[in-house]
Amino acid sequence: MNFPELHGWDLSATEAVALQRELAQRVDLTPRLGDCRILAGADISYNKFSTTLYATIVVIAWPSGDVLETQDVVAEQTFPYIPGLLSFRELPPFLTAFRRLQTVPDVVICDGQGIAHPRRFGVAAHLGMWLGIPTIGCGKSRLCGTFTPPDLPRGSTSPLMDHDQRIGTVVRTRTGINPLFVSPGHAVSHEQAVEVVLMASPKYRLPETTRLADHRVNLLRQQANAAAAESPAYPDADSSENLLNSDTPEAD
DNA sequence: GCGACAG
DNA sequence: ATCTTGTCGC
């Protein structure tokens, strides 16, 4: 995919919040979503206490579910996780992966919120503004807003409200299972966002795109861990003590 | 000041 | 998000 640089990423948390307020003004949710035959999912994983991020994009055909393309990226974290500023941590590696993508998806389903965000600029809205294609926020939990739990049957919904404004929809994708938090990211309506998420989640709680990306990104990380254990860049302290100290006199 | 807080 | 075994329920 090809897309222009929207802004730089060398920001403080304060600057990031200011940028969100600025960019949120330009969010355009005018529905421009046509056919949904090519869906994309994106996910990130990392080792606890590590700053290395593993990112994966999975593109699938629908309704066949066939995987059309995947892209993996390993990158160092450039921004920490701060609630409300998730996109500044996750978008840099995602954008690298999307640049390498040969297939242009009809819609991207993101892990996290779209406009259901304190400044109406969650990760899906931010990604959509960069890519210029329809995106949907589909979080497993709530960032902000109030709601009444939807009825138990799959397909039941309940509006996610921030005071008097609707910012998303709480959607039950499996009967009796915890609902998802769905909101428009870019170029989609509330209704379309819900429709797409329900379509992409026929059997499990999470959309197939999210499940596939989640599975693959964890394989990527675990394989990297195994490779690192097999041929470490630097031997661990215990096994290297003798080698490292062989020409170093002991202290008195 | 206190509680909440996507991944 | 990650760590982590078994277990309760449809």
Any overview of this molecule?
There is one protein chain. This protein is of the alpha+beta class. It has a single domain, classed as archaeoglobus fulgidus dsm 4304 superfamily (archaeoglobus fulgidus dsm 4304 fold, 2-Layer Sandwich), CATH 3.30.2170. It has helices at 13-24, 86-100, 123-131, 190-200, 208-230, 237-245, and strands at residues 38-45, 52-61, 67-76, 107-111, 135-139, 157-162, 165-171, 180-186. It has an eight-stranded mixed β-sheet, with helices on both faces. Helix 2 (86-100) runs parallel beside helix 3. The longest helix has 23 residues, at 208-230. The chain is globular and about 55 Å long. Residues 242-252 have low confidence and may be disordered. It binds two DNA strands through strand 1 and helix 2. GO terms for molecular function: deoxyribonuclease V activity; magnesium ion binding; RNA endonuclease activity producing 5'-phosphomonoesters, hydrolytic mechanism; single-stranded RNA binding. DNA repair enzyme involved in the repair of deaminated bases. Selectively cleaves double-stranded DNA at the second phosphodiester bond 3' to a deoxyinosine leaving behind the intact lesion on the nicked DNA. InterPro entries: Endonuclease-V (IPR007581). Residues 224-252 are annotated as: Disordered. Keywords: Cytoplasm, DNA damage, DNA repair, Endonuclease, Hydrolase, Magnesium, Metal-binding, Nuclease.
